[in-house]
Structure formats: structure tokens, C-alpha cells
Amino acid sequence: MPLSRYTFQPGINREGTSYSNEGGWYECDKVRFRSGRPEKIGGWEKNISSTFLGSCRRLNQWVALDGDKFIGLGTHLKLYIKQGSAFNDVTPIRATTTNGILFAATDESSTITATDDDHGALINDFVTISGAATLGGVITAAVLNQEYQITAVTTDTYTFTAKDTDGDTVTANSSDSGNGGSGVDGAYQINVGLDDYVQSTGWGAGLWGIGTFGGATALTVNNQLRLWTLDNFGEDLVSNPRGGGIFYWDKSNDVTTRAVNFTSLSGASDVPTLCNQIIVSQTDRHIICLGANTIGTTVQDPMLVRWSNQEDAADWTPTTTNTAGSLRLSAGSKILGGLRTRQEIAIFTDNALYSMQFIGPPFTFGINLIAESVSMVSPQAAVNANNAIYFMDKDNFYIYEGGIQVLPCTVRAYVFDDFNDSQIYKVFASRNAKFNEVTWFYCSSSSDEIDRYVTYNYLDKVWSIGTMDRTAWIDIGSCVSNPIATGTNNYLYNQETGSNDDGSAMTAYVESADFDAGDGNQFMFINRLIPDVLFYGSSSEPNVTYSIKTRNYPLGTLTTATTASVGSTTGVSDIRARARQMRVRIESTDTDNLWRLGDTRFDIKQDGRR
Which domains does the chain have, with CATH numbers? Predict the structure, then answer.
């Protein structure tokens, strides 16, 4: 019987059953579709060998006027600026204590208790101690005068675990009875946030120890998932932990200095003290706060938009001689986030999309309502690509190009039927312009951390799915020639680099939907296949495995009937499989191997049960 050529439709389609999608692809992992053909995605490797503290959920890259390259990282514990091969801690200081800390140690314990009245620290906060003297034994001045992470708190005390300068735990002895000397200072970094999303207020919400026992706990910047926004004001970095203050890092002071609160800038006037997101309007050079506190109060208005005077990060007081100002949105109850585009700033509330545009004096900015009853699923679920905004809402995907349209999605049910709503704010969107892709990373229903992705190729208009644990991503730009991303293991990765999982083999596969012969009226028999694979990795012996899966009815058990190993010189593979319905799966598990599929030809004939 003549060979039958099988050309499957590009993209993954999970909107129907496997049988109803005959002629298409049904499953994949670590595979993209480009020009209609499935291919293994690029690999990744560590950007540098060191790790950072906390889960990173925002990255930002920029180049200074002198050519220095920087990458900002915001984690739930720290704010970093990476320069060269080092993560530099620029986390702002919340408060300082001068000559006011006393220490106590217990024999055979590594726990040190510090007394500092009304210190304001929370569990997991960081404090840098200086000016301390020895406690009389092994808890020396060198042990005390370091940065420590706080392990427990009361109003006037906190504890930490003593360590030496190498980071090894130090256990006090009976001679450690002093108070650490006079003149002990402490520099307290801004309160840390959570690494998990809390959906509501009430008993048990937020960090232990906040509020009264048995009482409701209001959600604040400190007891909510820590989401940073990072942007550039010229060559300097502006940053904001969602629900917290706004901070400024001045490049001229180098990476050895920390970011400072805008309120401490020279000439600071009515600077917002609470904000949900900060954006720099690049053309007109205003700094914009979304969801800011009103002037003269410390109460955050989640629908208020405020902006600074033009070219002035410190002046936020509206006058007749400057361009500072504010506007309040009306559709919705809170601003989720905003996104700068070429001609406007798109602002999403929890129930609407607005367009904010610079219109000049006397009003400075104008805001127009684009659509109601639409939003995005999280503050970072929208991305710019191909002169449009792509965003994920709670039950669909959308595109904004001056107007909003639903993005037809062939994996919609697959994503939203297996989605962890309790960690919805962890969803983030990314762009991979080299491959015409936008990707959303999200938590499946069985995971509290990101473990899956869904990708849309906006040129070919096809979807793919897979598994990957990324928490932040930035595309190629001024600092990087490939995308970079952060993983749940606190490393920074160069994406689309090589073909491996940081030096290890990466499993990648694509699997077709069920197909049959003559609508399944008779059994079919396959006895050989002629593969069509382009290998272009660095492996000298690249390989993929073709698997034929069979079943006799759409709801029958799927069984792997035969497999065939295919290399770069394989001409034909002899296989044997018999059933009413079949699938083909192509998979690689070796290193240094990239591949792209063409069309597969099978020798198929109708057959009986025997």
C-alpha cells in the first residue's frame, strides 16, 4: 500500500476531545510552533553562579549614560541591582536606631535576643547592626556587627540566629552575658512581604503576629504577596513594592548605596507615601503613581492616579506654575496595574480599561474609559508586543489595539480548568520577540508556585503549552541579547541559550490528537514510518523517539504500542501497531539537541482484529 503523508495542523488544540481534533496536535511541553512547524524551544543556563534572596517577581534592565549595564530585581525580601557578576543589595532603610540596642544570649543557644523599643520590625525582616561589643564569650563584636534576618518579634524585642563572618552558626557559652556594649546602632530595612497571595482579610490573613489575636487582619504591603514595579527615571531606578512607598536609587551614588524614599529627596513636596504601581511617562518625563494616597493624608485611595511635576521626581504638589496633578478613576474599586505603550498608558482597574495620555497644560493628562467589564487576572498579566497589548483576564485572553477583542484560544479550557485561583496574583506575562511570542506563566491547581506556561505566537496565531518554573522575565533589550528570567530556585537564567536545562537534558515532546482510517470503521495497521526531522543542535548523535499510541475507541485506554529511535541518518523505521485510533508522539531526552519536525509518512493499511 502507498505511504500516507501526515501533516498536522500547527498549534495545540484542547478545546474539544482528542478524537474531535483529528489532524491536529493535542499535547506538548518545551515545544513551540514556528511557521507552522513544531520545534524544541531553546535551553537556558545560569547568568551568574550566585543566588539572590527571596522570590523575584519583577526584572528591569537599563544602560546608564556612561555605558554601565544594570538589571534590577525585586524579591519578596530584597531589592537588588545586578551589575556585572554581582547582586548588589539596594533595599531601602525603613528606620535607624542610634545607641539604643541591647543584646542577651543563653548558654548553648545560637539565638540572640535584641531589645529595641518600638522597632517596628516583622518576622523575616533584615537589620544591620553596628557598634556592638563582645558579649564576653564567643558572641564577639564581629559576630554581632552584621546583617541579620529576624526570626521572632515582640513590640520591643526581636531574635536572630548568631553566625560568624563565614555564615556558620555560632552557639553562645556561659561567658556571653553582656549587653553588647554601649553605642549599638541598627539599620532596619523596609518590611518584607509575603511569598504567597492572600485573597481576603480576616483571622489568619497575613503574617503571624500582625494585629490582635482572633481579630481581623487588614491586608497591607507587609502581609501580602510582594510585587515590585521597577522603572527608570533617566539612568536612575525608581521602584515601588505594591501598596508601599516609592523609592529612588541614584546611579551617581553607585551600587554600594541603597535606594531611598522619595520623601527624603531634596525639595520633596507631598510625595505619595503609598502606591500600587509607579510608571515613568517617557515622552513628557512625569513619574506616575497608580493607587496613591491623597495629599495631606496617609490613606491610600486605590483608584487615585497622581503624577509629579515634569522632570522633577520630588515635587508632587499641584500649583499653577507646575504640571503635578491627580485624577480619580470611577469604573471599578481598585487599580490593578498599568502598562506604558508607544502613545498612551493603559490602566487596568478590576472592572475596566482606561487610556491615559499626555495632553499638555493646563490639565497635563487626560484619561479616557476604553471598556468596562474587562480587566486582567493579576497586576502583571499584560505585556506589550507587536504594537498591541496582550492580557489575560480571569476566564479568557484579550488583545488591545485601540479597542479590545477576545483572543481566540485553542487551549482556554486547558488553562482555566486547571488553574490555582488562590495564587492568582503570581500570574505574569512576558514577551519573546525573537520568536513572535507572548507567554503567561501561572500556577496549576495542584501547585502554589508557578509551574506552567501558555504561549501565543502572534504571527502564526497558534498556541502552545508546557511546564516551567519561572517567576519573572524580561525580553532582549539594552543589556541582554537573549531573554533572561528568574526561577523558583533563586537563580537568574539566560533563556533561549543552547538546548539544555542548565547543562542537563531537557525533555521536550509534541503529541498528535487521535487519527484513524475511514472514520474508524476498520482497524488499521502501521508497519513502518519515514521520519522527517531537522536536527540543528550541537550534538554529534542527535536523537528523537517516535511513539505510536493506540486505542480502539475514543474513551478507551491509550497504550504505547511501539517506539522507534530516529537519528540524523535514519531513513526508515520498522514499527508494528494495530488499532482503530492512533496517536504519534515525538520526544527528545538527550543533551545538546535541537530539532524541528517536518511531515511524517506512515505505511498504513486497513486490517482486521487479527
Answer: 4-41+507-607 (2.60.120), 93-189 (2.40.30.20), 391-497 (no CATH)
